[in-house]
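Database export, one record per block. Field names are fixed; values are copied verbatim from the stored entry.
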Amino acid sequence: MTDLAGYVNKSVGLRFNGVELRFDLSHALFSSFDIDVGTRLLLKVAARDPVLASARRILDEGCGMGVIGLCAAKAFPGAEVLLRDRDSLAVAFAERNRVANKLKGSSAWTDPETGEERKARPGPRVEWGLLGDGNENGGEDRRGFEFVFSNLPAKAGGPVLARFFDRLSGRRGFPLLVPGGRAAIVIVKPLAEAAAAWIADAGLATVTSARGSMHRAFVVERRAGPEEDTEAASLDETPVEGDELSFYVRGEARFRLADLGYRAKGFWGLPEFDTPGYGSSVAAELAARVRSSAAFAGIAFKEAFFVEPGPGHLALWAARSLGLNRVTAASRDLLSLRAVGMNLATLPARSRPEYGIIDALNARELPPASFDLIAESPDIVPDRDWMDSSWDLAGRLLRPGGLYLVHCPPTEMTRFAKRRPEASARWSLQGQRRKKGFVASAWRKG
């Protein structure tokens, strides 16, 4: 696991329902200098909710650094709390903040004098997962939640947000909320009217709402039907087959990189949904030129590693143009990894590479000398030095004679090239190409 200390920007305190917590913040995550106003509004609206106070199971969807879910766990220690986010760095920070705030479970206990029993309770758990994907608790535990929180990200896209409300009520798949359960959500003002419509369409009842300077918060309830058993009604629901990721698909179109035309899907919440970005374009053009050079004549690229691949345009190009047998993708973003897999799956079976994913924070756990090609779009975070770790990772995972392809803004590339390890003169520059504010460079490992 990557050391998180280099990502920490500052630590701030927060008081909620009479309890004090502290949170490490990061430039790499939303709200890097203070607890954002949307989160504060959401906590204020939910603080005195009677359903929250008595909730046995609480979910924080899109938890970020863990502020909302950990506040709930601290204020209501009798509840089982689950936090989820699609960004693995957010998950790691939520876990870091859980430990820092000494939030842990309790074991079963019987008072020797009174015989009073206390059931075992797990501490707050943090999971890597997509908003509304139906895989809460690994997708096997169909119990609903008495209370759900979400600071909804506007960039997720309307269909994804609408689907989340459908998941709360059970209109799509098993319901996140038990009958009588409530959800507190906050959303930016431009989407407030749409959120009200999504709530109504999902069959949820609005209990209360509040307006902030830039946000609107809602508390909604899943009302029980006249014959619905509040204890068991949510247990028999099953998710819609094959629907786990389809609502993230924005459309499908024909694209072109370098000398290759292909079809690919675009996704809500990811870039390059209508055209490949300049970074992907310049990287493919350089790779095509280097691959056809005399230096690589007769050399096959069979196993490739893509770091932060977005929706997978460069991976698709490489799979087709280079005839890859295996593709491994690493990203902080679970949606990116799932999107790359969906796009690779559109290739004909005879040319479809085996596909594997890994959390980018755990990339060092891969076996040494595993790949013929490494293509990286660096994760550039203010005040964090990414360069040495990237060189070290490439040196460890690339086989001798393999190609290391990097694309990023020119200023970063100039610094990156100068940081090439002195003790490792085996790295030889094979070419460089610029395009619209991006530059790609290719090095060969001797």
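Remark 1: Confidence is low (pLDDT under 50) at residues 229-242.
Remark 2: The longest helix spans residues 278-291.
End of record.
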